[in-house]
Structures are given as C-alpha cells and as structure tokens.
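Q: Could you fold this chain for me?
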Amino acid sequence: MRIGIGIDLGTSYSCVGVFRHGKVEIIPNEEGNRITPSYVAFTDEEILIGGAAKNQVAMNPYNAVFNTQRLIGRKYSDETVQADMKNWSFKVINVAEKPKIQVQYKHETKVFTPEEISSLILAKMKEIAETYLGQEVTGAIIAVPAYFNDAQRQATKDAATIAGLIALRITNAPTLAAIGYGVNKQLSSERSVLIFDLGGGTFNVSILTIEEGIYEVKSTAGDTHLGGEDFGKYPLRRKSHCRNEDRRIKDYRNAH
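A: Sure. Below is the predicted structure, expressed as structure tokens.
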C-alpha cells in the first residue's frame, strides 16, 4: 500500500509526518529528533544535510547554506533578497535575474538554484520517512509559509520533483494546522479558528472557519523576518547597546 507523507519545509527547520492508525505521527530523524535543521553544507568529500550541515556554519561558513526559503521563487533584485544577503556567509550570485548559490564542492566551484538546495532537504525528509516506514514514499503534501506567492509555490513544487517526490499539494502551513485541529476535535458545528504560527524565521497568523470538513481562510497576516532566530539576536543587540552606553558613561566620567 502506498503511503503519502506530509512535509513542513521550514525556513529554519523541517519535519515530516505520516497519518496512520487514526493519528499523525511526526517521524524522528536518525538522531532521534522530530525536527531537522534546513541546512545544506558542501565539503571536499560530500554533501551534508540537517544537523551535520548546521555544524559546518562555524568551520565552513562559505559552503553552509540555509534560509533558502527566503530565496526560492524570488528575483535577485528583490529588496528582501538584497537585505538577506547581508546576513549570509554563503555567496549568492545573479544569473539572468535569478538568485543562485555559489559554493566550493569537491574542490570545484559549483552553482545551485534555491530549488536544488530545497530539493536536497526534501529528499532528506523523504529518506527519513522511508527508513521509519520501511517502504518507498513517492507522494507528499508540502506545507509552505502562508505568504508564499504563486512563483514560490511553483518553485517548491519543482524542488519536490527534483527530490523524487510528487507534490500532491502545496498548502499553507496554518491551513494544515487547522485541518489537524479539526480532525483531532471531530467538530460537529462551525468554528472560527485562529492559527498562531511562530517558526524559526517567520511568523504567520491566520483566521479560518471550519464547517463540515470544509476549511476556509478568512484572513492571513505575518512577518517574513520574525521568528525564534530574531528573538535570539535581539538580546545580543541590546546587550551590545548597553555595553556601548556603559563605555560612554565611563569615558565621560574619566574625562571630567
């Protein structure tokens, strides 16, 4: 029997699950974790994906790629792409107005599209599911941020194809969360539901109505650059600011 999986392709972390025995099982990776860093690293010997790739950021910063959700389906000249590039250690180049990632792999310069990088993460999720289920997986429903436009959704679908997956559906993450809520609660009357989706790199709020198994999105809003990673950065910036203020006060006192 063929089994379809669900993949949450996140900006910072990704995860994969399967619906069976009347419930959703979030599948652990080889390290026993139910989330896998959305990182891909290139070395002289191999391509690393997940936790091993994230560990390469400090020692191999120019060849450790992350946040590709911020590139996929976008143009190189997009303001958000230009702003994000300032925060990345890996190199993004302009090829016919398409952003591409340039790395050193096996002692050679290689160029990858964001779709190709995302496909490696999707392939990793596929591998995790197949190891857990003990059978081949070919179809997947893929969750993407609610703000994704048509070009970004098509690019994600292309990434799935490269990964050897049939994208059964590309769906907003908040909508899938609402479906999970409706299945678990077995609702018999209409409900309005607010989905608060705070990820590692993005933030989405959606309001949906659920009635007789039909899910309708009424409104969606969010911030593409607000998530757990930003909460970690703010205290560091605040601490640095306080240190600078302390230094100015000490300098003033010493001078007077």
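A (continued): The chain has a mean pLDDT of 88.
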